[in-house]
């Protein structure tokens, strides 16, 4: 199921916008902003096809991690369409930046940096860079858009609005480039939460089809996106003390600014402790956790699902479609904040501080 498909049955102001953009000198950076189901991806598809038809080299930066078009999910992706297309899901990404979640409210910095990194790559060869964004436009979402605009400095930011509801955000972003407001098409269709979830399910399933289980030697890569492995390993005495105090099976632990332990509950009783002194991670939270394979340039080679981790052997088993030769280029295994199965079923989101 694709939420957006290319069509010429569009309001006249879209053609005016296309004329506006194609008449500007390049390279041109265009960011699309609008609420959920406002038609951003449909507009991007229309503009990309129109610009390509006019002989311009177009790049697409897909940063709508909640309703990702270009695989893999939970990343920001860059693609260069070679011809007309009906949906961004037809495009193949050439570079990716790992976010690790489909709900990036706590990842405004990573979202802004990721867009900036990929736009810079796109500008090396594109005449026009089209940037799709999430429908997260209020509160932290507005600040996320500001950070992107501040870093990228889009030449034009296009706002899709129904009733001038983005006036405040337009004013917030106006210092960083021209702003254009167009109305949401009356044909724009709202999608239920379950429909959006089904779209994601299809994307996960498509990405992980043909995956294989690989063993990752954690001695050979750094571990990012988590407090695991930070600090010195706990002594046997510290493990025994924490286990007896809290009724845990402590599987691993480290001492830095605070204690960090991976544990499994052996006994069931209320536990109280200072979270600033002790950070306890349930081992089950690591099961089926999305992880990213990061190269030496900080870009994402692809993603995988953490199936098992042995802290004593410092090995991890990860299900991924990435070829072995590509995995060999990874210098970091970065932990995400969504648990998902290769069938596409999402098991839940984690808060940033949980890991």
In the predicted model, the low-confidence regions spanning at least 5 consecutive residues are 1-7
How would you write the strand order of the largest sheet? 4-3-2-5-1-6-7
CATH homologous superfamily of the largest domain? P-loop containing nucleotide triphosphate hydrolases
Instruction: Kindly provide the radius of gyration, computed on alpha-carbon positions and rounded to a whole number of angstroms.
Output: 22 Å
Shape: elongated
Query: What share of the residues lie within helices?
Result: 25-40%
Round the mean pLDDT to the nearest integer and report it: 92
SSE inventory with pairings:
Blueprint: H1 12-23, E1 28-34, H2 40-53, E2 58-62, E3 75-79, E4 95-98, H3 108-122, E5 128-132, H4 140-152, E6 156-161, H5 167-173, E7 178-183, H6 193-208, E8 212-217, E9 222-224, E10 232-233, H7 236-246, E11 248-255, E12 259-265, E13 278-282, E14 289-294, E15 300-310, E16 315-320, H8 324-327, E17 332-340, E18 346-349
Parallel strand pairs: 1-5, 1-6, 2-5, 6-7, 9-17, 12-13
Antiparallel strand pairs: 2-3, 3-4, 8-16, 10-11, 11-12, 14-15, 14-17, 15-16, 17-18
Helix pairs in contact: 1-2, 3-4
């Amino acid at each position: 199921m694709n939420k957006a498909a290319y069509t010429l049955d569009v309001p006249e102001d879209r053609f005016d916008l296309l004329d506006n953009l194609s008449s500007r000198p390049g390279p041109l950076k265009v960011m699309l902003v609008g609420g959920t189901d406002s038609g951003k991806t449909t507009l991007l598809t229309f503009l990309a096809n129109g610009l390509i038809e006019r002989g311009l080299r177009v790049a697409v930066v897909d940063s709508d991690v909640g309703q990702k078009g270009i695989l893999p999910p939970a990343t920001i992706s860059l693609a260069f369409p070679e011809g007309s297309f009906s949906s961004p899901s037809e495009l193949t990404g050439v570079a990716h930046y790992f976010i690790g979640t489909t709900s990036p409210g706590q990842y405004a910095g990573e979202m802004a940096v990721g867009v900036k990194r990929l736009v810079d790559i796109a500008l090396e060869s594109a005449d026009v860079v089209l940037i799709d964004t999430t429908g997260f436009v209020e509160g932290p979402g507005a600040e996320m858009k500001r950070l992107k605009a501040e870093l990228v400095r889009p030449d034009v930011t296009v706002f899709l609005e129904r009733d001038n509801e983005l006036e405040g955000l337009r004013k917030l972003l106006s210092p960083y480039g021209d702003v254009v407001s167009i109305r949401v098409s009356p044909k724009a269709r709202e999608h239920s939460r379950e429909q959006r979830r089904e779209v994601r399910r299809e994307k996960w399933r498509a990405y992980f089809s043909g995956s294989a289980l690989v063993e990752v030697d954690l001695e050979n890569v750094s571990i990012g996106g988590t407090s695991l492995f930070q600090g010195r390993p706990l002594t046997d005495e510290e493990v025994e003390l924490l286990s007896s105090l809290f009724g845990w099976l402590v599987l691993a632990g480290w001492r830095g600014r605070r204690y960090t332990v991976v544990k499994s509950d052996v006994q069931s009783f209320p536990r109280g402790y200072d979270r600033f002194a002790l950070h306890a991670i349930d081992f089950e939270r690591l099961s089926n956790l999305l992880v990213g394979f990061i190269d030496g340039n900080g870009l994402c080679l692809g993603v995988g699902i953490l199936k098992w981790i042995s802290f004593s052997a410092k090995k991890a088993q990860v299900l991924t479609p990435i070829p072995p030769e590509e995995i060999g280029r990874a210098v970091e295994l970065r932990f995400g904040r969504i648990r998902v199965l290769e069938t596409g079923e999402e098991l839940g989101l984690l808060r940033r501080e949980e890991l």
